[in-house]
Amino acid sequence: MKLLVVGASYRTAPVATLEQLAVPPADLTRTLDRLVAQPYVAEAVLVSTCNRVEVYAAVSGFHGGLGDICAVLAEQAGAPPAALATHLYVHYDAAAVDHVFRVATGLDSMVVGEAQILGQLRDAYHSASGAESAGRLLHELMQQALRVGKRAHAETNIDRAGQSVVTAALDLAAGLLDGDLTGRPAMVVGAGAMGSLSVATLSRLGAGPLTVTNRGAARAVRLAESYGAAAVPMAELVDALTTVDIVVAATAATEPVLTRDVVTRALARRDPARGPLVLLDLAVPRDVEEGVAALPGVEVIDIDRMATILADGPAAADAAEVTRIVAGEVEAFLSWLRGADVAPTVAALRGRADDVVTAELRRLAQRRPEFTDDQRAEVARTVHRVVQRLLHQPTVRVRQLAAEPGGDQYAALLRELFDLEVPQTSPVDIVPDVVEAEIIMPADTDPLTGGAR
Questions:
Q1: I need a surface site. Which of 10, 277, 349, 444 has the fewest CB within 10 A?
Q2: In terms of Cα–Cα distance, which of 139, 121, 199 is closest to 167?
Q3: Where in the chain is the domain with CATH 3.40.50.720?
């Protein structure tokens, strides 16, 4: 199995395309099931956030896997694959590992270094585990990616300002409101992870009073109580909009929540002396209807606008240090993967040796029936020990060589030399064999024939 990443992000696709590709939480398991049902896709993890939609997969072939994944994404988007082609990126094998680790460390984020992506990756991994679409290869990749992300944040200052998409969006909003959010009344639409982060960030920045609304009223009440905010029913959205200066919209709705009609009615009753109504749309699909940005007295900041404005990341030294960490971790993972690739071949070689020994011991038992049980057991132990010692150094060495770049040739050479049949399986499904293990047989097993006495 090989690793393949296929996706689209704010770097390659406009929000409209990300909206088409976005997978709502309710559809996540079904989409994962469709992915692993494809002929060339054995494992899949799906990440769908406001900035990216990506499939991490273990595939049996590059072209077949790419075609399978693109077909599922096209079905999800309701568009032909050709229409998505210009917006998708593809990473294979080593490049796939590098990409996943860059995503985990925040190097590939709109706000470079933001730590929220770690939680999003963890959620995606847990969802795939629950759907049983992540096998041993992706389990290892995702666990290592999460570890590398934590390491980058622990060892560098890439997230020194605590930046996230929310803080970056609020910084832009402050620029439209005299540079300060202190005392500015604000509302958060949505009570999920992004909504919770928004309420926490607004509270920390001194904005207020704060209001929370959500389709599930109970969840809005719990979030509001945690920060001394007020919860209002979604049915009172128009009234609430007349009393605030900032709105952070971050729901999982599939249709816009802040429609042109809703915002128009609120503006008609809102005092224009308050200044612009700033709407921060952090949802994909969008929570703010497309025509709202053209209304007078409204400023809309969405993912497209943020991608254009946020050109500066962390200090170059921080990004360079994280890049160095990622490079080292990628090579370590690839070394492990190359070493794991040879495990089925080593197992097949030892299996072939065991078969030869068993056949020869059975032949000896037929030729020398006068041997006592103790003599037969001693001969069996001696022959097994000789074979193990002969195989020990070559198998240890081939593992070392296989872990180096280009090491796959050594496994191929072993298969050719010994005419080995190696099943096509994910390398991490192979349990490492025990070198020079003591041969222990049940008491009622014949040591020469391997059969019951």
A1: 444
A2: 199
A3: 165-301
State residue 52 phi and psi, 5-degree precision.
-160, 155
Q: Which CATH class is domain 2-159?
A: alpha beta
Q: What is the chain's Cα-based Rg?
A: 30
Residue 46 three-state SS? strand
Helix (H) / strand (E) containing 363: helix 316-367
Residue in this structure with the two tokens 């470079």, named with its chain if needed: 112
Query: Where, residue-wise, is CATH 3.30.460.30 in the chain?
Result: 2-159
Please name the residue that has the structure tokens 């930046």: 163
Give the CATH superfamily of 165-301: NAD(P)-binding Rossmann-like Domain (3.40.50.720)
Backbone angles phi, psi at 324, to 5 degrees: -65, -45
Q: Among residues 1, 13, 50, 301, which one is catalytic?
A: 50
Is 70 a catalytic site residue? Answer: no
* Residue 18 near residue 88, CB atoms below 8 Å: no
CB 361 within 8 A of CB 383: yes
- CB neighbour list of residue 76: distance below 8 Å, 6 or more residues apart: 20, 21, 23, 27, 31
Distances, alpha carbon 439 to alpha carbons 49, 192, 343, 434, in Å: 53, 57, 20, 11
Mean pLDDT for each 10-residue chunk of the chain (453 residues)?
Answer: 93 91 93 97 95 95 95 93 92 95 92 86 96 94 96 84 78 89 95 91 94 94 94 95 95 92 95 92 91 95 80 63 93 80 76 86 88 88 87 78 69 80 51 32 40 47
- Cα separation, 4 vs 56, in Å, equals 6
The Cα 311–Cα 315 span in angstroms is 12
